[in-house]
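re: that chain from earlier
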Amino acid sequence: MRPAVKRYFRILLFLSVGVLLLYLITHGQDVELIVQELRQANYFWIFLAMICAVISHFLRAVRWNRLIRTMGYKTSTFQTFYAVMTGYLANLAVPRMGEVTRCLTLSKASKTPFNALAGTVVAERVFDFFTIMAIVFFTIVFQFSFLRSFIRRTFLDPAIQKGTENWIPLVIGVVIAILLIAGLFIFVRYRQKNPVASGFFYKVQRHFKGFINGVKTIKRMRGKGWFVLHSILIWGLYYLTVYLCFFAIPATSHLSPVAGFTLLAVGSLGILAPVPGGIGTYHFLTIITLRELYEIAPEPATSYAYIAHANQVAVNIILGIISWIILSFQQKKNNI
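^ sequence. v structure.
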């Protein structure tokens, strides 16, 4: 199978999985009630969330500019912003294509080497990875007692009850799981030592090296304090895009600020899934969290997931198209 065909087949497959998740999570719900809640939503809060999203994207461009200047190149902040939005637009069509797209468009518009820009994007992704992990960690810490009682009530107690009734199948299952994990560990260790070019483990090693290089770029960067400050502001605004949408519908307006961090962490994991635009995965994780953790009814939980996701997608589409048009004109001007 040709690489291009294989890539598009994979995209179609993951998109189908996302659509299937959407169907499964909304199956059996009152669709008319969901539509009614969407119509009656307070769009003032949704508009504020969209404004926060725009500002966060602009600050991301400013932060990226700081990394680019560390490499010894100068680019316009607005050019960088247009490239960032073009990348977000590309991600809606092809997952992970945004990083390549924004580097390519900025390289053509500003005549900055593509490889240099790619290195800065890796550094950005490394820092964002640590930020997401920190958000997940502090979310668990601040809600530890609440999460502990939820996990015990929902998973542990039923599992222990069933395990005491059927202890023989449980023991057999544990032994099989241990053997599978041990076999997988041995297989991974062997393939890491003998990676096949262009194979899965070869790509893993390459990404790991890119991760290390990204950490080194951040380490030698000048103005680390400003970089960290911009990152805090960016993720603070991401948080507001999630939290402000709580007030759009009555059923979620009572949720605490800490719940906003929970939805931010869960939603980020949904967006990271290899599905175009996080369609399905974002909604699935958000709805499950609202229903199971905060006991929100299925229909309002679904309405919130659609609102929170749609406002991000709308910003990326509108600004992405405008940015792509502007950069196209700048590229033609540079060629002339």
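Residues 298-335 form the longest helix (38 residues).
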